[in-house]
Amino acid sequence: MIQRDLATILRSSVRRFPAVTLTGPRQSGKSTLCKMVFPDSAYANLEAPDVRAFASADPRGFLAQFERGAIIDEIQRVPDLTSYLQQVIDEAPKRVRWILTGSQSLTMMESVSQSLAGRTAVLHLLPLARSEVRRFRRHPQTLDEALFAGGYPRILDQRLAPSEWLGSYVRTYVERDVRLVSNVGDLAAFQRFVQLCASRTAQLLNLSSLALDAGISQPTAKAWLSVLEATFIAFRLQPYFGNIGKRLVKAPKLHFYDTGLVCWLLGIRDVSQLRLHPLRGAIFETWVVSEIVKHRLNRGEHAGLYFYRDRQGVEGDLIVEEGGRLSVVEAKAGQTATPDVVNAGSRVVRALGEVADVQRIVVFGGEGDQKRAGVKVLSWNSIDSHRW
After folding, report:
1. In the chain, what are the domain boundaries?
2. Over the stretch 330-355, which tens digit does the pLDDT of each residue have?
3. What CATH code would you report for 7-124?
4. CB atoms within 10 A of CB 31
5. Between 319 and which of 65, 93, 240, 298 could a Cys-Cys bridge form, CB atoms 3.0 to 4.6 Å apart?
6. Is the predicted pLDDT of residue 313 greater than 90, yes or no?
7. Cα gap 197→23, rounded to integer Å
8. 56: Cβ–Cβ under 8 A, 6 or more apart, which residues?
9. Contacting residues for 83 by C-beta, under 8 A, at least 6 apart
10. pTM for the full predicted model
11. Cα separation, 308 vs 248, whole angstroms
12. Cα–Cα distance, 223 to 200 (Å, whole number)
């Protein structure tokens, strides 16, 4: 397995906190990362029925067996365990460290925030970023191959067919994980809902329209969307407001963390189908946004990402806020840096330039970075060369 970008921050967090909580979607590589970074640590997986039964029935006895701490996988399966862990942490020598992982942020973070506030660092491990994908001996070379394969490690590590693995992943997710997070009665309806969400990736979220198309109530659509967020399948990108005295849209944009999963949900089973797909541009925008989300999370940044859109139709795919400076990022899937591509985002820069220091970046689907007057043009394949 390759080195993950989050490894550096994980090591430094363990030196500063008695516990580290690592969240992310199932199969994103959390267990593998923890075992690689801490090879000498004891390990317990609460997915195993006998281990979970022990931890539930005798939490003090379960924790007492780990004198030097441990990696405890899927901690949300025994939420009360963190309450007992709090006392263990407070009484233990400083050299004892605990690594907690979980794939359901809502359940997990409720118990962690109540019991381990101030005692644990919280990190997120998403599917592979492009910088990590390139570390595999064989990896997707073209943009369409990268979009289609996505970033789940097992696909690349074992050289699996993306559509076959992702089909199994979705079935397991719907039949297993969703039941653990929410009382979803009609799993077939839920899967249709997820597919409809995929068809709206990189679009403004309209819950009433989504609910109508899915044949469910708006409160149900809202609850099911929260399930997708809690299990790290999709996320809402909020609009940027700042101090701008303009009429801006208030609805968030919907994005997925993995474009391979989006492709599967849209029925794309081959790279050739993606090349001419009407949503290819939206899929590329989601890829760019998710890549930047990954890069920031991999260095411990949890906020500062928005999009821009006003009532006059001026729109920016992504706004990155850091250190008092704004970056307007535009995603253009075309392979050529035409004048239209280079000029993308210029209206947003003019709108934001009244109130902030703004730079303009365009990520396009071709090769070769360029530096034009007032804009940095990045190839999709070198998106990690910029410090987001």
Report:
1. 7-124, 130-240+254-278
2. 999 999 988 888 888 898 888 887 66
3. 3.40.50.300
4. 18
5. 240
6. no
7. 23
8. 78, 80
9. 111, 114, 115
10. 0.94
11. 8
12. 17
Of 147, 143, 142, whose CA–CA distance to 127 is shortest? 147
Which residues, other chains included, contact 95 with Cβ-Cβ below 8 Å and sequence gap of 6+?
68
